[in-house]
Amino acid sequence: MPPAATVRTVILAREDGLLPIIAMIIDAPDHGARARQLLRLPDAILLTGSPELERACRDAGFELGAQFIAQQVAALHAVRTPSGELPEHVIQTQQIWRRGMLAVAGDSQ
Fold this sequence. Notes:
mainly alpha; 6 helices; disordered N terminus
């Protein structure tokens, strides 16, 4: 059985060094496919891979995707209310961005 570090490397990186999700965004047939991928991303990937994700979106001409990533990361860094919730204006901003991405993603959601 391979060591855990080897398995982790296989899962998280391709031979060319790209995270699989970065390659998926680059290789996606259109912005709708890119939007669907971004809407499903775990927060941990957004936090650790945001510069590469934003660059992949921009390289593909998907500026909306790059801005969506930046907004999501900003929300993850937002100071919470005393009860531990996101401030209402952050929640509303996330909903607006999510609706925009859903519109780009199309009916296949």
